[in-house]
Specification:
Strand content: 5-15%
Shape: globular
Order of helices and strands: EEHHEHHEH
Number of helices: 5
Helix content: 55-70%
Largest sheet: 2 strands, antiparallel
Strand order of the largest sheet: 1-2
Radius of gyration: 15 Å
Number of strands: 4
Oligomer: single chain
Length: 110
């Protein structure tokens, strides 16, 4: 539970934006935009927080749900943790693409 300015509570929904859901929201057009962001950086890599910001910008958030953005950021944080194989909080383009296509194939054959 997280308090918002001391007014009530809401329950974080850890499954709302799970890794499979996030991966299905990323289409080829978004992949191209994400890749261009990686290419702007040194060594085709992004800090985890920059990665979250870029992906969040590419995905639409339900504006009628005030906590949707919080749930999406939490889901993206979990995605960073899964993708970041080295544990250095740096996401490399190769780490992202391998994870993306693995999850894509799992979704197709599941």
């Amino acid at each position: 539970k997280i308090s918002k300015e001391g007014k009530g509570f809401f329950i974080l929904d850890p499954n709302k934006y799970d890794i499979n859901t996030l991966m299905t929201l990323i289409d080829l057009k978004k992949i191209n935009k994400i890749e261009s962001e990686f290419r702007k950086s040194e060594n085709n890599e992004l800090e985890g927080t920059d990665f979250i910001r870029i992906i969040k910008k590419e995905l639409s958030v339900n504006s009628s749900d005030p906590f949707d953005e919080i749930n999406m950021v939490y889901g993206l944080y979990k995605l960073v943790c899964e993708i970041d194989l080295s544990g250095d909080k740096i996401i490399q383009w190769s780490e992202f693409t391998v994870s993306f296509f693995n999850n894509f194939l799992l979704a197709i054959y599941d």
